[in-house]
Design brief:
The longest helix is centred in the first third of the chain and has 15 residues. 20% of the residues lie in helices and 23% in strands. It is α+β, with helices and mostly antiparallel strands. It starts with a strand and ends in a 10-residue tail after the last strand. Strands 1, 2, 3, 4, 5, 6, 7, 8, 9, 10, 11, 12 and 16 form a 13-stranded mixed sheet that branches. The protein has a four-stranded antiparallel sheet with strand order 15-17-18-19, covered by helices on one side. A two-stranded antiparallel sheet has the order 13-14. The protein has three domains: 198 residues, Cathepsin B, Chain A; 78 residues, Nuclear Transport Factor 2, Chain: A (Roll); 70 residues, no CATH class.
């Protein structure tokens, strides 16, 4: 069964306003106007016991959700294991018809959870009799580009239309949710090692979770899967994941064909790779991108694209990425000098790369990595922005 809430998507206004954007989206669904993200961020950041470690801290975000409206009551849930939080999220959607906000990517980021697929609807917040298959998210990253706006945000604005305007619809397989999204927080001390979400009031259940559903590995993982094989298998993956029969997601994949897959290497994990497989319509317009584990072949997640002309992977090509940096100078961090890029001294990493960081908080927005001796340059594939380092030093960005 599927439950899906209508939570209109809006981007975060800066690279550290994810908590403010999530609050803006959820508060708007329960009767508030589209409040200023500046004001919401100030509320989040200034009502906490731990301001130095966070942009939007958990207790500050919970304070904002309760003090910016009256019909709902939100609680901050923090547990030692993932399962109780995931089930509380399902229960909040089912019982209260209100989207929770989850702390994801080890505390780096906040995302709105607006739907789930499961074997049955939960009976209580601590019901363990059903199995979860996937979650639907609003990820407010990337931040809005330069003017024209929004902000100010309005109903039906360009947020979520693709490229530098973000993507409104993301489906995450439960195994990927467990491994990549709802992972233990690493920032500060108050919620260190905890799984965290801001939900409606019923408490999470027992910290002793039932056994997790078995991950559906299609291959043994001894070698990376070839692009052609992944391309052939992707519709089977989607069918097995239930998306082709899902009342919302099935429309995304109606009459599509697969494009050329892109291989991505995780920089923060050993021997971890995934394929991004574009799906396009008859005119070649991008309809969705599907994440597939590059070793084991199982479905990870999907991103739907509302604007088929959106350029999400314009700088994935190695030659285009090189042209972004050739004959330029880049300031190195820590006053280490300027890096001069010469054609004879560089090489391009064969795979795209990604890790959760301030520069990208979505696995569908990876980088092309260019090596110059001991130095690295990272060209973000959707907009060509160039970075000398990927930063990961504050929670709740």
């Amino acid at each position: 069964m599927h439950e899906h809430l209508d939570v209109p998507y809006h981007q975060q206004d800066t690279d550290y306003y994810c908590g403010a954007a999530c609050a803006q989206m959820v508060l708007h669904t329960i009767g508030q106007p589209l409040l200023s993200q500046d004001d919401l961020y100030n509320d989040n950041h200034n009502h906490t016991i731990e301001p130095s470690a966070w942009s939007s801290p958990p207790d500050g975000l919970c304070w904002t959700m309760n003090n910016r409206q009256s019909p709902k009551h939100f609680t901050l849930d923090s547990t030692d294991t993932e399962d109780p939080i995931s089930r509380t999220i399902c229960w909040a959607i089912h019982r209260y018809q209100c989207a929770p906000i989850a702390l994801v990517f080890a505390g780096n980021h906040w995302a709105v959870v607006r739907g789930y697929t499961a074997s049955a609807a939960p009976g209580t917040s601590f019901d363990t009799s059903y199995t979860i298959s996937s979650f639907d998210l609003n990820n407010p990253w990337p931040p809005v580009p330069a003017p024209p706006g929004p902000p100010p945000h309005t109903d039906g604005d360009v947020c979520g239309s693709g490229g530098n305007r973000g993507v409104a619809d993301i489906n995450v397989a439960y195994s990927t949710w467990q491994m990549d999204y709802l992972t233990p927080n690493v920032f500060g001390t108050q919620w260190l090692g905890k799984y965290v979400a801001v939900c409606d009031p019923d408490p999470p259940g027992s910290p002793m979770p039932p056994s997790s559903p078995e991950r559906r590995k299609r291959f043994d993982g001894e070698r990376l899967l070839e692009a052609g094989l992944v391309r052939e298998e992707v519709l089977g993956n989607l069918k097995e994941a239930g998306l082709l029969s899902h009342p919302v997601w099935s429309k995304v994949f109606d009459e599509v064909r697969t494009g050329e897959p892109l291989l991505v290497q995780r920089l923060d994990r050993l021997d971890s790779y995934y394929w991004i497989v574009p799906t396009v319509d008859a005119q070649g317009g991008l309809r969705a991108a599907v994440g597939i584990d590059a070793r084991f072949g199982d479905y990870q997640q999907t991103m739907a694209v509302r604007n088929p002309d959106a350029l999400l992977f314009g700088f994935a090509d190695a030659e285009k990425a090189m042209q972004r940096v050739l004959n330029r100078q880049f300031e190195l961090p820590g006053d280490a000098g300027r890096l001069v890029v010469r054609a004879q001294g560089l090489s391009v990493h064969s795979a795209l790369v990604w890790q959760p960081c301030r520069e990208s908080l979505s696995p569908f927005y990876p980088f092309r990595m260019i090596l110059l001796g001991a130095h690295r340059l990272y060209v973000r594939v959707f907009d060509g922005a160039v970075f000398t380092t990927l930063t990961n030093n504050q929670g709740g960005l």
